[in-house]
Design a protein that fits this description.
Layout (H helix, E strand, L loop, with lengths): L1 H20 L3 H27 L6 H21 L7 H8 L2
Helix pairs in contact: 1-2
Amino acid sequence: MEFVATGTSLPEFESAMISVLTGSPELGVGVVIGSNIWNIAGIIGISAILSCAVTTNRDEIQRDGLFGLLSILILSSFMPMGPPRPAYSAVLLSI
């Protein structure tokens, strides 16, 4: 299982590292964010729909959607401020 996890994450890691080493760290951030969005929305969502194992109600979907939207808005507001700082991490972790 670790081999599969490494194999699926290695291209994203390589893309992020190359972008940082070539002086484009914002591209690396985009790779990480895009990968996380796909992993959460795509893989987990498709698996849940196909297996019919996950049941939820409207309140849970609204709550999770609001927290997801809030974290994206906060992250988007930090990105124009330059390189990440520890305070940014503290704010995002507190959500």
